[in-house]
Amino acid sequence: MVGGLRAGNEGEALALAGWVHRRRDLGGLLFVDLRDRSGLIQVSFGPDWTEAASMEHAHDIGHEDVIRVEGVVAARPEGAHKDDMATGGVELRVTRLEILSDARTPEIPVYRASEDELPAEELRLQHRVLDLRRRELQQKLVLRHKLVLAARNYMDRNGFIEVETPILTKATPEGARDYLVPSRVHKGEFYALPQSPQIYKQLLMVAGFDRYFQIARCFRDEDLRADRQPEFTQIDVEASFVEVDDILRWIEGLILALAEISDVDAPIPFPRLTWQESMERYGSDRPDLRYQLEIEDWTESTADLDFRVIRSQVDAGGRVRGFLLKGGGGLSRRQIDGVENEAKAAGAPGLLWGKRSDEGASGPLGKFMSEEQADRIGLGIGDLVLVSAGPDSLTSPTLSAVRDALVAVLELQPVREHAWVWVTDFPVFDEEDGMLAASHHPFVMPHTDDIDDLEADPASVRGTAYDLVYNGTEFGSGSLRIHEPELQRRILRVLGLSEDEIEKKFGFLLNALSAGAPPHGGIALGMDRIVQRFTDSPSLRDTVAFPKTTAARALFEGAPTPPGESALDELGLQLKAQDS
RNA sequence: GGGGUUGUAGCUCAGUCGGUUAGAGUGCCGGUCUGUCACACCGGAGGUCGCGAGUUCGAGUCUCGUCAGCCCCGCCA
Q1: A269: cis peptide before it, omega within 30°?
Q2: How large is the greatest C-alpha to C-alpha distance in chain A, in angstroms?
Q3: A35 has which bridge partners?
Q4: pLDDT for A6-48, tens place per residue?
Q5: Which residues touch A132 (CB under 8 Å, ≥6 apart)?
Q6: Could you please report the per-residue DSSP string of A336-363?
Q7: A333-345 vs A392-409: helix axis angle to the nearest 10?
Q8: Helix (H, G, I), strand (E, B) or coil at A232
Q9: Rounded CA gap, A543 and A437, in Å?
Q10: Nearest CA-CA partner of A275 in A287, A266, A267, A289
């Protein structure tokens, strides 16, 4: 390995192999920066120490050729040290050169001066092997390896068994679109790739593997984002005879083990917020607690405000919520408009605001306020108030977006660099367009106190579900699961499934649960996202060796491709004509 | 599915108001060069301006469509 050579190695005769990173040909002397995974070292060619044939040969070597050199480690001459290089004090004086492999001129450079821009990502993906030679990407994949290894070791130490679950599985309804795999033996039938090993790990609990984990690949056929790939990796965990606290404590220990590797602070135990509280104070179920800004409720204190927009929302059952920014009056109209645009993008019709100066309150909201009313909500001279009025389902996402925008525009200083939080007690159901859907998945154990309300008031039923949030990013989520078949049936019924559908889709799970199922629960952590955040990567693509584009294409190998006629025949499939 | 944005030499980019032969740096090729390290210097090659229509006397530049990358919304139990 080339990167570890130091002054202490002087005089050693050895052979090194690697890639030609840079070359500097001075005619009589020639220098090559030789690279391998461990780093760089300068190797030097000169007529006084290099064999004549090798010397001649050396002028032919080009970038990214793979070479092997024999020589002696020597201190560099006085004044020729390179202090910004780990091996900068030494070099290998080459006696013999062997070119192991000629490289074509690389389409994208591996070498990059510090001020050079990266090649376009399209090219980086097309020529991925070259891109992966870059130190930054190699370091990310090495860190990923270390994190996975630490996770395995930690889970093992705590008595968890890694069990692999099928990749060819049964399609499950709801949730994301499945990737389907046609069956040749059973024409017209398809396997699905797992969106997660959720049901399998519950089956393993019933089977008595009371502590399970898996570094599991998951697949979801949905449109992609910077932080979303069609296939991704979860640290999947499940345990029997446990309470929520047990799982959170295990995962805190796991995160601590991972964070230590990455130089991230993870002071455990992590604070907890109920979902209700999180929505109330931050408008989001994954609040970024690096920043202190919190939502306030002024429904009461604005009750006498004669402003039609607010009155109509409150009369309709809405609330008046927003942010008070001490000293925020300095924000320009343009900056406030920028924040309002974020509010609109989050679905709000607009954002109400008010400033206060010596001459009183002003702004779309402020101008309706008397001195006394301004005092009551705490709007002092030089302050700014930003308000959203309406149902929580509107104001929460709005104010969450406003909060993010304010953090940016005010350049708000974080109160901590690494903010961890558990958000607990998520509702079991989401209401979307009047339809009930499982807010997490349909196997979440409801709070015992709320089970009686399942049919009468499903929206109010809290689940034993929790999310782990780091700096505003969801790292993972889990819950206790339902282990009683009857309760599971009830939930599925509430979700609108017929007895027939329940049997067809979940019969195998219910069948398992009735075989004597232990109470159990678990969590799944997004490995890729952890690596992304811990390496401060702009995209998940940088944490994966061979990622897909946002259109789910693999540019290097060129997947997907149309199938051959014979393949289709064998599968009993026929392609529909495209376009229409 | 929708919105935005980018696409000019191998790579990173410039290209004014629509006007003559589309430039720079780097890489590549050839040459000089014995302590360089973004080596230096001299010379050279290299272009389907993503693709297709249209407007125009004339399009890298304007219009429409399309493809691809990226960002976002929808979607992601």
Answers
A1: yes
A2: 95
A3: A19, A40
A4: 888 999 999 999 999 999 999 999 999 999 999 999 999 999 9
A5: A138, A141, A545
A6: HHHHHHHHHHTT-S--EEEEEETTEEEH
A7: 140
A8: strand
A9: 32
A10: A287
| Phi, psi for A549 (deg, rounded to 5) | -75, 175
DSSP A86: T
Task: Return the pLDDT at A578.
Answer: 61
Contacting residues for A391 by C-beta, under 8 A, at least 6 apart = A313, A316, A317, A318, A319
What would the pLDDT profile of A420-462 be if each residue is shown by its tens digit?
999 999 999 987 767 788 888 999 999 999 999 999 999 899 9
Q: Which residues, at least 6 apart from A465, have a Cβ–Cβ distance to it below 8 Å?
A: A424, A425, A426, A428, A439, A440, A444, A477, A478, A479
CA distance A198 to A517: 15
**Three-class secondary structure of residue A374 per DSSP:** helix
Residue A347's pLDDT is what?
82
The whole-number Å distance from A101's CA to B31's C1' is: 26
Distance A159 CA to B73 C1' (A): 44
Query: Which pair of structure tokens corresponds to residue A84?
Result: 């910004």
Any idea how long chain A is? Answer: 580
Q: How far is the CA of A153 from the C1' of B34 (A)?
A: 54
Please count the other Cβ atoms lying within 10 Å of the Cβ belonging to residue A29. 15
Distance CA A144, CA A524 (A): 17
Q: CB–CB of A210/A240 below 8 Å?
A: yes
- Which residues, in sequence order, are bridge partners of residue A74? A91
Residue A555 has φ and ψ, to the nearest 5°, of: -75, -25
SS3 content of chain A, % helix, strand, coil (to 5): 30, 25, 45
Interatomic CA–C1' length for residue A137 and nucleotide B22, angstroms: 36
Residues forming a β-bridge with A225: A228
Nucleotide nearest to A77 (CA to C1'): B35
Question: What nucleotide is nearest A48 when CA is compared to C1'?
Answer: B34
Q: Mark the nucleotides of strand B covered by protein, meaning any atom under 7 Å from a CB.
A: 1, 10-13, 26-29, 32-40, 68-77
Could you tell me which of A49, A42, A2, A47 has the C-alpha nearest to residue A24?
A42
Amino acid at A444: V
Q: Residue A565 corresponds to which tokens in the numbers above? A: 């006629």
What Rg do the C-alpha atoms of chain A give, in angstroms? 30
**CA of A44 and C1' of B41: distance in angstroms?**
22
Backbone dihedral angles phi then psi of residue A59, each to the nearest 5 degrees: -70, -15
3-state secondary structure of A401: helix
Nucleotide lying nearest to A63, CA to C1' measure: B27
- A239 φ, ψ to 5°? -145, 155
pLDDT of A255 > 60? The answer is yes
Q: Which residue approaches B36 most closely, CA to C1'?
A: A24
